From TrEMBL:
InterPro entries: DnaJ_domain, HscB, HscB_C_sf, HscB_oligo_C, J_dom_sf. Signal peptide: none annotated. It comes from the Eukaryota. It is found in: Cytoplasm; Mitochondrion. Interacts with ISCU and HSPA9 to form an iron-sulfur transfer complex. Interacts with SDHAF1 (via the first LYR motif); the interaction recruits the iron-sulfur transfer complex composed of HSC20, HSPA9 and ISCU and mediates the incorporation of iron-sulfur clusters into SDHB which also interacts with HSC20. Interacts with the cytoplasmic form of ISCU and with CIA complex member CIAO1 (via LYR motif). Homodimer. Interacts with ISCU (cytoplasmic form); this interaction stabilizes the (Fe-S) clusters on ISCU. Interacts with the CIA complex member CIAO1 (via LYR motif). Pfam families: HSCB_C. This is Iron-sulfur cluster co-chaperone protein HscB.
Length: 280
């Protein structure tokens, strides 16, 4: 037999699972508790039973919260218990990922959430990727995804083509250059290099950068500026080899420090280009 306190615990537990029912039926629930309490034994509830009921209530509440949290976080177009995406138009499963078009109805698909730039561009997730293959993939995708191809399609298809085309552009630009590619690879591992921070650079390195910048500012001929540019390219090439080795070994902190150096030399390289354009 349950006591009054035990019954209240069970009712409150059910109310946690059905909050709307509690709000709309407060009087009937109260009468049910009172009526059932009069029909039950008035024996005292021992401590073990009380703790048991409290644990049941906590578990039920946790299950309720977990269920609705998981439902709210389900990705769009995903079904519970399966991984494959479905076409938004014909509802057929999409055979390949990333799926730019449905193989069944040939309709363009929206960008897939959480997909990496390497997957989009069909490249190996490596620092020394094949840039020629990257460029070929970029041209192929833009030929099929460009918004001009969808000017006579539905508004939804036009929106998807714009989103897909913009995403491909961003992926291509990010993976094309070693610096942005390396920074992106670190981002995939949850690491970031903050802008404008010199705390990781030693004084000798910073002095070297200062001297290079001063020499570039004082360069009076394109030959002198080009000489600085060639020297900078050599340093960037050496850093590329070192960064690739660090990433292959999983030495992320080393790769992060080397990429920070690469950022400085990449800035100098851009300044050299500006300097050379000024002589024209």
């Amino acid at each position: 037999m349950l006591s009054l306190n035990s019954l209240r615990t069970v009712c409150l537990s059910r109310a946690a699972l059905h909050p709307n029912r509690l709000m709309t039926n407060q009087m009937p629930l109260s009468r049910a508790v009172t009526c059932s309490a009069h029909c039950m034994s008035t024996s005292l509830l021992n401590k073990d039973a009380w703790h048991s009921n409290m644990n049941i209530r906590a578990l039920e509440k946790e299950r309720w919260l977990t269920y609705y949290t998981n439902q709210a976080n389900l990705p769009r177009n995903y079904c519970t218990g399966q991984v494959k995406l479905n076409c938004w138009n014909c509802k057929q499963p999409l055979d390949k990922m990333p799926a730019f078009f449905c193989m069944s109805c040939k309709v363009i698909q929206p960008p897939e959430e959480g997909i990496t730039y390497f997957k989009i561009m069909d490249c190996d997730c490596t620092f020394t990727l094949d840039t020629q293959k990257l460029q070929k993939r970029y041209l192929e995708l833009q030929r099929s995804l460009h918004p001009d191809n969808f000017s006579q399609k539905s508004v939804k298809e036009q929106e998807y083509s714009e989103s897909q085309s913009a995403l491909v552009n961003k992926a291509y630009k990010t993976l094309l250059k070693p610096l942005s590619r390396g920074l992106y690879m670190l981002e995939l591992q949850g690491m970031h290099i903050e802008e404008g921070t010199d705390s990781g650079a030693d004084s000798a390195f910073l002095m070297e950068l200062m001297e290079i910048n001063e020499a570039l500012d004082e360069a009076q001929t394109p030959e002198k500026a080009n000489e600085i540019g060639q020297d900078t390219k050599g340093k960037l090439a050496d850093l590329t080899v070192q960064i690739d080795a660090a990433l292959r070994k999983g030495e992320l902190q080393t790769a992060k420090a080397l990429l920070a150096q690469m950022k400085y030399y990449a800035n100098i390289e851009e300044k050299v280009k500006e300097k050379l354009s000024g002589f024209m």
